[in-house]
């Protein structure tokens, strides 16, 4: 509750920014979605709407019901759209007496009720995640002393009520819990709900399927086992994810097209590839991200398919490094995404991983605070003798903000490399590969 309460107070839209830093106040919930679309003072509000006439009704105080994706554009998956459907219509009914959103007091109340609804939903999932972790620690006889790592990280305080990543991480953690207990169909169902909250867990589905296929190819599992997994896990996953998308397409085909375009053509947000390509909108960032993620997930697939049966700790580790790989290597690396991985951290019983991750988490939390003070930070650097242009540009290197996020991504990538190397050593995979190569070379020499 403590971390939720701190995050709630920081992002409350009716209170001043803490320390006069808008980074403490900003949230995607209010300032990323609601304010641009519903604010009567925003001259560009119309560009977000398919049915602008409905917004005009809300501004006037008329009776209407708002449907995300049908009435306005939304770049988040269906479960988030469902939350907005509830919060927007509930808030609008609550302020109906005000005479319309053009009334400033009415509009502030509208924003606050939306904020309260989303915050309470996030609280439910935060408590549920903590409860699930406690249950896992009891069943697996792990030390409870590691649970505060999940609750009190700096990024948890800053980003909990910022976006909906914590909801996605709950469903992902629950999916792993069920997978370990061999409840494959239930695991697929909950991971589907995670995907419908945030797209990132799609990588988990792809990697798990690839691991099972590789195990079959290398004769570590039988065809029936692979077939059952594909039927119970992959097919379930596809059906659950596809149904809401089909409904959305029927309701408004443009909504899915705009959803795709938003993510496909988004800029290099805090991504590591700025080191090689400074144009944030270059296609190279997408190519770099797809290539590095494909290579990394291939390595992970090979390593984790080596054993016929994975122990519990290996499975937790697998889901963790897939998530961390995405955060560090994607061309979209929003700071709140780190919450997708944080609930796994207490379960990764490795002090080196924990120390590196907490350093990355601190830098990640500072990132949003630096973001809105970019010009001031550049001035400080100039006074210290650094040759930096004084301007407000927190999106591009050499911004102090981007140098912070770059260091964070490097630390997270170091965790991925460390875990991969540790798994290779544990499985003596490297020695096996070396022996195979030596044997091949010896056979080649004999033939020569």
- Sum up the overall morphology in one term: globular
Question: How many strands, which pairing sense, and closed or not: the largest β-sheet?
Answer: none
Portion in beta strands: under 5%
Strand count: 0
Helix content: 55-70%
How far is it from the N-terminal to the C-terminal residue, by CA? Answer: 71 Å
- Average pLDDT reading: 91
Number of helices: 19
Radius of gyration: 24 Å
List the secondary-structure elements in sequence, H or E: HHHHHHHHHHHHHHHHHHH
| Low-confidence segments | none
> Number of domains in the coordinates?
2
User: What structural class do the secondary elements suggest?
Assistant: mainly alpha
Q: Could you describe the 3D structure shown?
A:
The chain is globular. It is mainly α. The protein contains 19 helices and no strands. The chain starts with a helix and ends with a helix. It has two domains: 117 residues, no CATH class; 318 residues, no CATH class. The mean pLDDT is 91.
Topology:
Elements: H1 2-11, H2 22-25, H3 28-38, H4 52-60, H5 78-94, H6 104-139, H7 148-151, H8 154-159, H9 165-180, H10 184-195, H11 202-217, H12 223-251, H13 253-264, H14 283-304, H15 312-329, H16 351-371, H17 374-383, H18 400-426, H19 429-447
Helix pairs in contact: 3-6, 5-6, 6-9, 9-10, 10-12, 11-12, 11-14, 12-13, 14-15, 15-18, 16-18
Compact overview of the structure:
With 448 residues, the protein is mainly α. The protein is 67% helix and 0% strand.
What structural keywords apply?
448 residues; mainly alpha; 2 domains; 19 helices; 0% strand
